[in-house]
Amino acid sequence: MAFASPRGAIRRTSQRPFRFSYPEGMGVASKPLFAFEDTYARELVGLYEPWRAATAPEPRLLTLNEPLAAELGLDPGALRTPEGVAVLVGNQAPEGSTPLAQAYAGHQFGGYSPRLGDGRALLLGELVDAEGRRRDVHLKGSGRTPFARGADGKAAVGPMLREHVVSEAMHALGIPTTRALAVVATGERVARETLLPGAVLARVAASHLRVGTFQYAAAQGDPELLRRLADYAIDRHHPAARDAEAPYLALYEAVVEAQAALLARWMLVGFVHGVMNTDNMTISGETIDYGPCAFLDAYDTGAVFSSIDHGGRYAYGNQPLIAQWNLARFAETLLPLLDDDADAAIAAATEVLTSFPARFDAHWNPGMQAKLGLSGDAEDDRPLMVDLLALMQTQRVDYTAALRALSAAVRGDSAPTRSLFADPAPFDAWAERWTAELAAQGRDPHAVADAMDRSNPLYIPRNHLVEEALAAATAGDLEPLHTLLDVLARPFDERPGLEAYAEGPPADFGPYRTFCGT
Ligand code: AMP
Ligand code: MG
Q1: 381 CB within 6 A, ligand 1
Q2: Where on the phi/psi map is residue 139: left (φ > 0), alpha (ψ -120 to 50), or beta?
Q3: pLDDT digits (tens, 9 = 90+) for 231-249
Q4: Considering the entire predicted model, what is its pTM?
Q5: DSSP letter at 301?
Q6: Among residues 183, 271, 169, which one has the least CA distance to residue 485?
Q7: SS3 helix, strand, coil % of the chain, rounded to 5?
Q8: How is residue 455 annotated by DSSP?
Q9: Average pLDDT, stretch 260-281?
Q10: Are 319 and 267 in contact (CB under 8 A)?
């Protein structure tokens, strides 16, 4: 494939990684920018289409994640040059890169689509990071591909910045997630309900293998392809499975475990993914595809933010169940690898699948105990945990604010939490039991309160703040967005001057609706 190579900008050299060449005397050493590898392209023929990005007429860098760039061994200064931006927006494919659109199938809202795939995205290649981890670099919004069906292949600035903000917030909260390397405005308008500025998101992931990738492979009727995919997933994400007695069952178990851990983290932090289709569930256990996602303000297990989720299938409280449903679909793809006898294969997979709720609890219980400063037996502490949530549900209390305020109560001031309950009496009764339990557990209250503050974030991507920052950015003012990114990068550390970022939404905000596929 021939790629345009403007003189003095990017040069293609055979056998060598992509290099910038600076004019003589600039004092900058010529240094490879990307050293892409292409294991997916080489090992998984049949699961992608080689493709290239559409040309962005007037690329402009909106965000660059410098710490992530450094982690990947990339030079942030070089990424900011026109040549770097050209790579980040898809105008230039660097040496070593085999851009491709990945194939996948998926259940969307329960209905099966045999061919979804990257309709508007490309995998540029893989980088091995500073810690030796292989990471995908992927572009989203880079134009139509053979999987685009009727759609335009584009993305608007707002949703791509949204993915940047929310995925980086999740990362700072310690939740496994794809990361945002950069958002580049294309200089083009994309037609949505109105004409909006277009953008490309450069995304980094442990991989883009999805449950839907396995569904696609399984549907090809080629057992060798499915086995190759499973072996690739084992090598890349769950290498311990390779040495297990039954490697493919061990792969399944590792994914079930990774997803149980992930879902517990989502629930603990009040995250609603919004579109948990099987094509949006990773094999790595990372959160992926931030579309109509949102964080809870008021605690409500029925919370739905997505404008298209009419039945509430992906409501906050349904998420663990849906994850388990998706994992059942994943098991179905693996059956031929598990046992020649179909009944034996189903029995083995079912045993693992039914362990999901216990695995979820094994992550959720200690997580919620830490939030409440509890350190006893999880079963003993559980009534306190669920009773508090029930109270919050009844009174629609702000989830993040209430949990964070509890440390003040441990330090002797229960007013901040009480003020969040319209009727504080039931909270007082709960707090009496809680205080007694804390006393019985006998730890130093200041140490307990400090530890709670490291488990209960103060700053989350509040819906009203995200919307405000995106609206400003779409209109050309990036300052609120950069401030928000800075606030969310350290979610647990209280910082003076940031009080407004810790508050719930203004009374006139909402009901909040998010839009997907935009
Ligand atoms: P998502 O809802 O973002 O997970 O996407 C679901 C499917 O629709 C995937 O196959 C996407 O690649 C595809 N898709 C979403 N938006 C677009 C678009 N604007 N152009 C082409 N394909 C799209
Ligand atoms: Mg998706």
Answers
A1: no
A2: beta
A3: 999 999 999 999 999 999 9
A4: 0.94
A5: T
A6: 169
A7: 45, 15, 40
A8: T
A9: 98
A10: yes
Q: State both tokens at 342.
A: 């179909």
For residues 362 and 196, what is the distance between their CA atoms, to the nearest angstrom? 45
User: Does the pLDDT of residue 15 top 60, yes or no?
Assistant: no
Check pocket membership of 141 for ligand 1, CB cut-off 6 A: no
Any idea which residue has 């969307």 for tokens?
108
The size of the chain, in residues, is: 518
Closest CA to 338 of 232, 255, 252, 254: 252
For the chain, how big is the Rg over CA atoms in Å? 24
Residues 6+ away with beta carbon under 8 Å from 392: 299, 399, 402
Hey, is 204 helix, strand or coil?
Answer: strand
Cβ proximity of 17 and 61 under 8 Å: no
Q: Which of 211, 137, 141 is nearest to 179 (CA)?
A: 137
Q: Are strands 134-140 and 111-113 parallel, antiparallel or unpaired?
A: unpaired
Query: Cis omega (within 30 of 0) on the bond before 511?
Result: yes
Nearest ligand to the CA of 147 is 1
- Closest to 160 (Cα-Cα) out of 146, 178, 144: 178
Distance CA 337, CA 227 (A): 7
Sign of the torsion formed by the C-alpha atoms of 258, 264, 268 and 274: positive
The model's pLDDT over 445-454, given as tens digits with 9 standing for 90+, comes to 999 999 999 9
Task: Name the residue at shortest CA distance from atom 13 of ligand 1.
Answer: 119
| Spatial contact of 285 and 259, defined as CB atoms under 8 Å apart | yes
Mean pLDDT of the chain: 93
- Residues with catalytic function: 279
517 alpha carbon – ligand 1 mean position (Å)? 6
The alpha carbon of 45 and the centre of ligand 2 are apart by a number of angstroms equal to: 21
Residue type at position 456: N
Buried b vs exposed e over 338-352: b needs ≥16 C-beta within 10 Å?
bbeeeeebbebbeeb
Give mean pLDDT, residues 80-108.
95
**Amino acid residing at 500:** A
Question: φ and ψ at 146, to 5 degrees?
Answer: -60, -10
The residue type found at 393 is Q
CA 284 from centre of chain: 11
Instruction: Pull the structure tokens for residue 94.
Output: 């660097």
pLDDT tens-digit map of 160-201 = 999 999 999 999 999 999 999 999 999 999 999 999 999 999
Name the token pair of 113.
Answer: 């689509």
Residue 94: per-residue pLDDT:
86
Q: What is the pLDDT of residue 31?
A: 57
In short, whether 117's Cβ falls inside 6 Å of ligand 1 is yes
pLDDT band with cut points at 50, 70 and 90 for residue 9: very low
Three-state DSSP state, 243 = helix
333 close to 301: Cβ distance less than 8 angstroms: no
Of the listed ligands, the closest to the CA of 292 is: 1
